[in-house]
Amino acid sequence: MTLNRLKPNFDSADQQALKSALTEMETVVLGKTHQLRLALACLLARGHLLIEDLPGMGKTTLAQTLARVLGIECSRVQFTSDLLPADIIGASIFNAQTQRFEFQPGPIFTPLLLADEINRATPKAQSALLEAMEERQVSIDGETLPLPQPFFVIATQNPFSQMGTFALPESQLDRFLMRIELGYPDNKAERQLLSGQNPRQRLLQLECKLPLVQLQSLQRKVDQVHLSEPLLDYVQRLVNFSRQSNEFEVGLSPRGALALVQCARAWALLEGRNYVTPEDVQQVLAPVAEHRLRGERDTTGHRGASLARLLVDAVEVVG
User: Fold this and answer.
1) CATH of domain 50-209
2) Dihedral sign, Cα of residue 131, residue 135, residue 136, residue 139
3) Phi, psi (degrees; rounded to nearest 5) at 146
4) Triad 75, 215, 222: Cα angle to 5°
5) What's the pLDDT tens digit per position in 69-114?
6) Is 265 within 8 Å of 47 (Cβ atoms)?
7) H or E segment at 147?
8) CB-CB contact of 26 with 34 (8 Å)
9) Which residue of 176, 208, 261, 280 has the fewest C-beta atoms within 10 A of its own C-beta?
10) Where are the chain's structural domains?
11) CB 284 within 8 A of CB 203
């Protein structure tokens, strides 16, 4: 593929800040550099992040680490089967002194909402996030209220084969720009974890390495990352293959295609470039596409990993 490769024009201070943020996060989340880069790319692309894995793998720790390194306020909601939408959005409470109902904001009114074990709540409670995640606002009692800017949701969930879980509906899954998994640590990282400081204690010592003003500046720069025509042709071939191949029951939607492009731009910025390469697209394809794809013979909706690999293997970079 012939690309119109531009010279990198990003401030070296920005690159140093991104490097420092990743280095700081790696002191708590050990041996997961690739996942940390994906999580940071997701936020640079102004997206919401879903972290799925077994209990005890560090999902919540990763989310809290991001919040501390970015220096933004974080509210945590523990999702349970008895959670109600009002527990997230808030409710109107009658004030006996004023004789009027007054709205009491819920924890969703925060720059970063940690939705812990989101799939342990019922679909009714999960639906409280739909409008907020897409439109950055909530509607209650006939009134529309804006959410803080920026507004991120980082949600964790256990595999839906675990007891007491409710599978997220497709409309909810599609609101997440990326879904990542952490997996077991390698031997070196686990030895460091066992012999070193408790990650919870280290979490309290983290410093803000990417202030909000700089994060927002980087988000604007993500929008400026160049997409060549051949690169867009490659993305469209990936998308069209997912819609036309008999291996897929559900292909990538236009929202999914936009997510793929925006995440590739963010990944390119992390690499210090202001242009996207096919390798950038391939690096983010799995976390962007896996939770949006469903195979023709897939009764569980969890064949996304193999389908993402099929896309990369089957679609030529050069048309």
Assistant:
1) 3.40.50.300
2) negative
3) -75, 150
4) 125
5) 988 888 999 999 999 999 999 988 888 888 888 889 999 999 999 9
6) no
7) none
8) no
9) 208
10) 50-209
11) no
